[in-house]
Amino acid sequence: MTQRLPLIIFALVMAVIPLLPGIPPFWIVLLDNIGLAALVAMGLVLLTGVGGLTSFGQAAFCGFGAYTTAVLTTAYGVSPWLTLPASLLVSGIAAVLLGLVTVRLSGHYLPLGTIAWGIGLFYLFSKLEFLGRNDGISGIPPLSIGAFKMLSPDTIYYAIWVAVLLAALLTMNLLDSRTGRAIRALRRGHVAAEAFGVQTPRAKLLVFIYAAVLAGLSGWLYAHFQRAANPTPFGAQAGIEYLFIAVVGGAGYVWGGVLGAAIVVILKEVLQSYLPYIFGGQSQLETIVFGIMLVLLLQLAPQGVWPWLMSKLPFKPTRKTPDTSVKLEHRERAPGSSPVLLHIEKARKQFGGVLAVNDVSFDVNAREIVALIGPNGAGKSTTFNLITGVLAATSGKIAVLGNEVANAPPQEVVKLGVSRTFQHVKLVPDMTVLENVAIGAHLRGNSGAISSMLRLDRADEAKLLAEAARQIERVGLSEQIDQLAGSLSLGQQRIVEIARALCVDPMLLLLDEPAAGLRHMEKQRLAALLRQLRDGGMSVLLVEHDMGFVMDLADRIVVLDFGTKIAEGTPAAIKRNPDVIKAYLGAAA
Amino acid sequence: MNTTIMLFLLQDGITNGAIYALLGLALVLVFAVTRVILIPQGEFVTYGALSYAMLATGQVPGTARLAVAMGLVAFALDLFFARKALHARLVIRSVALNIVFPTALLGLVYALVSPHTPIAVNIALALLIVAAIGLFLYRIAFQPIAHTSVLVLLIASVGCHLALQGLGLVFFGAEGLRGPALSNAAVTAGPLRFTGQSLAVYGLTVGFIVALWLFFGYTKTGKALRATAVNRLGARLVGIRTTLSGQIAFLLASVIGAISGILIVPITTLYYDTGFLIGLKGFIAAIIGGLVSYPLTAVAAIVVGIVEAFSSFYASNFKEVIVFTLILPVLVLRSLAAPQVEEEKD
Fold it and tell me: B283 to chain A: which residues are within 8 Å by CB?
C-alpha cells in the first residue's frame, strides 16, 4: 500500500484542483491539454524509453481515435461511450497493420518509417471526403452521463484525468510483471531475451499496440473535448512534439511522460503568449525555442527531468524482498528418445568463405561437466550459438535427448532445457539483479499482458520472483539482489547470468567463459557450485580459457582449433596430447 | 493516355527525381560519416533557395546574420571545450573560421547586394551562407553529442529542423518566393522542351554522384570519412580527426542542399516550410538505398520523382499519401531481406 500512496495523493490533489475557488478556467484548459498529451507520452515511454522503439508517428494514432468517434457520432448518431471501444479498436488495428511492417525494422529504420507513415496518414486524413478533408468534422456531441453533459473544460477534466491515472496505473503494473520484464529487455537487443523464451517480435508488437491504443484514447477524449476533429493536431509536427514530451520528462519513466507533458504544454503556452511581445508579431517563434531547447536538453540532461527530480528526493523508494518460501513447479521435461543429453554430429558453420565450425561432433551425457577449449577463434562461441539456435548451422545434426534442434529458434531450444550465459554479458543494466534473473524464469510463468495490467498475475509473479531469489542465493549474490545489474563488477555480472540461466530449470547449462573476471576465491566458489549442480543431475558444457579451472573441474574436455575438433578426452589425457600442445604453444614446443 | 502526356510526366518526374537524388546523396553522405539522420537537410534547401531569391531582389537575407550569430556560438563552444589548453594556434583558427569568415561574408553581402548583381555572384553568396550555417550547425548541435546513439542524434536533428524552420519563417516570411532562372536557353527534342534549368539539374546530379563516388572510393580524405562512420574510436586511434570528418560531411550536405534549392526555386515557388517535404522525399530515396548506396539512392530518387509525377496527374489529391506510403513496401522488403543484427544501444 505504501507504494500506492504517492499515486493516491496525486489523484486527490488532481481531483480537488477544479473545485478550488478562484482557479482561472484557463488553467483547467491547460490541465486538460496536459492530460491529453500525457496519455500519448505514456505510450511513448513504454514504446521508446522502455522498449527502445522510437516512433514519430504517435499523433496519427490520436487521429484514428478522434476520427473514429467523430464519424460514428456525427454521421451515425452513435453514443460517445459506445464509440470508445470502437476508437480504441481502430487505433489498435491500425497499430497491428503498421506494426507488422515497422517493428521488425532495426535501429534507425524504425523512426524513419514512422515519420513516413505519420506524414502519409496526415495527408490521408486531410484528403478523405468522409473525414471532411482539411476542414475536418465538427459538431461532435459532448460526453454525457445521464442528463449531465461534459460541455465545459472543467467537467471533461475528470474524464481526462481518470483516464491518465488509470493508464499510469495499468502501465506501471504491466512494467512490473513477467511481460514487463520481457519488454524492458528489448532495448538491450533481442539475443539474450530470446535465449530465455521471449518472443521478441510479439513483445515489440505488443508495446506498439499498447502505445497506439493509449494515443487512440487521447484522440477520442480530444474529439469530445474540442467537439471537432481536423487533421492539423495529428500531423508530423505533433508526432515530433509527443516524442519531445517523452524525452523532456524522462523517456524511461511513466511519470516522466506526465511531467514532460506538463512542462511542454505550459512552456508552449508561455512562449506563445510572451514571445510575440519580445520579437514582434511573427508566429511560430515557439518552435525555434522548442528546437533549440531539445538540442540543449539532449546535450545537458539526456535522461530527462523525472529521474533528476527523483534523485533529489530525501527518501528512496523501498523494494519488497520476495518471499522465497513460495515454490515454483519444476518445468515439464521434454520427452526424450535418447539417453545422450546433447548429441552433436558433424555440425558445420560457414560465414561466407570462413569455416568457423568444421564438422564438429561430440556428446554431452547426463551428470557430466564437459569443457570446450581452444585458442581464440577456434569456433567455441559459434558452437554455442549453433546449439542454442542463435545461429543456423550450415549442415550437420544437433539433438537434445534425441530431439533434433538444428535451426530451431532459441525460444524452442530453451524449452528443451538448454540454457546459457554469454561471453559478452547481456544483462539489462537498469534493471535490478532480481528482475534480470527473473527473466530466466520467463517460460515457467504464464501471465499475459492483460492479467499483468489488472494485477491478476500476483500468484504467478510471486512464484517467479521467489525462484529468482532462490537462484541468486544459490550463486551467492543475495546481498546484491536489489542493486542495478549495471552497477556490479563484470565478474559478478557473469554470476548473475548463471543465476538467470539456472532459473530456466535446465538439464544442460552452457557457460561461455564464466570464470573470466573472477578472483581466485570466486573461481573456487563457482567450481564448487558447478560440481554441486552436476551432482544434482544437471550437465554443464563450458567454454573457458583458465586451464587450471578447467582441468580441475571438467570430467571431459573437447579441444577445437580453427573450427575443427583436434582432441577429446579426460583432463589428464588432454594435458599430454601432442596436438593440443601444438595448437596452444606452436610447433616448436 | 497519350504518349505526349506520358513523356511530359516522365520528364517532370525525372527532373524532380534528380533533385531528390541530390538530397538523398547528401543524406547518405552525412549518415555514413556522422550517423546523423539529417532532417534539417530540407532547411538547407529552403535557406539556399530563398537566400538566393532575396539576393536577386536586392535584399539582404536574414540567413547571413544567422551565420554570424551561429559563428559566435560555435566560437564560444570552441573556447569552452578547449579551456584547459588554450593554444594560440587553436584560438586563431577558431576566430578565423567562426568569427572572421561569417562576418566577412555578411560584409560582402551588404557590399554586393543590389537588384543588378550578376546571378553567379548571388549563387556564390547564397551557397557560402548556407555552407557556413551547415558547418556551424554541426559544431553547435552535433559535435558535443557525436558519440551518442543514432536515436539521440536523430532527436537532436529533429530539434534543429524545428528551430531552423521557425527561423526560416522569420527570415523569409510566410509568402513564397521565386528566383530568376539560371539560364534561358532551351533545347527542343520532339514534343519535349528541355530548359537550361532542367539540363543543369541533370548535369549537376550526375556530376555529384560521380564526384562522391570518386571521393569516397579513391581519396584518402574520403576513406577517412568512411572509417569515422564505422568506428569513431578506431578512427581516432589511427589519427583521423573525427570532428573534421563531421564538419566536412555537413559542409558538403549543406552545399548540396543549397544547390538543390537554387536549382528548383526558378521552377516552383518555395515557402519557408517547403524544404521539409522535399527533404523527406530525398529521405525515401535514401532509405530505399539503405542509407549506404549512392547509385541505388539515385535510382530510387528518380523512381520517387516519377511516381510523384504520375500520381499528381491521376490522383492529385493523394499525391503525398502515395509517395509516403511508397516507403512501406520497401521497408517490408528490407526487414525481410536483412537478418536482424544485434545492436548494442545506448
Answer: 112, 115-116
